[in-house]
Automatic annotation (TrEMBL):
UniProt source species: Enterobacter cancerogenus
GO cellular component, one term: plasma membrane
The name this protein goes by in its record: ATP-dependent metalloprotease FtsH
Gene that encodes it: ftsH_1
PANTHER family per record: ATP-DEPENDENT ZINC METALLOPROTEASE YME1L1, METALLOPROTEASE M41 FTSH
GO molecular-function term, one example from the UniProt record: metal ion binding
Length: 214
């Protein structure tokens, strides 16, 4: 995990960024299932903290990504014990009605039913796993909430502090407005900033252009 922010980006109210691990071009079944669990973390946090009746639509894209990932595991990557290492779907491309109908003709109703069952089982297993992880680490969840409310964006060093249950250090370049707006590093008062003077952007909130969208 590289960065977490509650600053809105596009249609997302907050974003979690991951950096690729080395030059890996493939992923294990264990890693893919962990990604599914991670994708449901936000929705589950809402459910645990606020209750099922107050879960929002904020995780809609996460649900879409997790479902597509689980379906690919079953239909393209051979991670289904019932269906085995067979290809049941071509690579996703431009979708239109004729193609969807043509693809459906190559698959029996029974096979389609088993695929749906396997996808649902993958989702349910990792949804339950994510719930258990959150329940076992509620103190970290609340500490992360506090850190994000204070800093808005946290990077890998702050995430490491959270996972180790240490006090979270300020992000690089972050300046406490309450402690340093009217004094320099030596405690010497400085002139107040003119109202119309633009503030310097916070380097800690700058997203690398190489990361892209989630």
């Amino acid at each position: 995990m590289h960065k977490v922010t509650i600053i809105p980006r596009g249609r997302a109210l907050g974003v979690t960024f991951f950096l690729p691990e080395g030059d890996a071009i493939s992923a294990s079944r264990q890693k893919l299932e962990s990604q599914i669990s991670t994708l449901y973390g936000g929705r589950l946090a809402e459910e645990i903290i606020y209750g099922v009746e107050h879960v929002s639509t904020g995780a809609s894209n996460d649900i879409k990504v997790a479902t597509n990932l689980a379906r690919n595991m079953v239909t393209q990557w051979g991670f289904s014990d019932k269906l085995g290492p067979l290809l049941y779907a071509e690579e996703e491309g431009e979708v239109f009605l004729g193609r969807s109908v043509a693809k459906a003709k190559h698959m029996s109703d029974e096979t389609a039913r088993i695929i749906d069952q396997e996808v649902k089982a993958l989702i349910e297993r990792n949804y339950a796993r994510a719930r258990q992880i959150l329940n076992d680490n509620m103190d970290i969840l609340h500490s992360m909430k506090d850190a994000l409310m204070k800093y808005e964006t946290i990077d890998a060093p702050q995430i490491d502090d959270l996972m180790a249950r240490r006090e979270v250090r300020p992000p690089a370049g972050w300046e406490d407005p309450g402690a340093s707006n009217n004094s320099d590093n030596n405690g010497t008062p400085r002139a107040p900033r003119p109202v119309d003077e633009p503030r310097t952007p916070n380097p800690g909130n700058t997203m690398s252009e190489q990361l892209g969208d989630k």
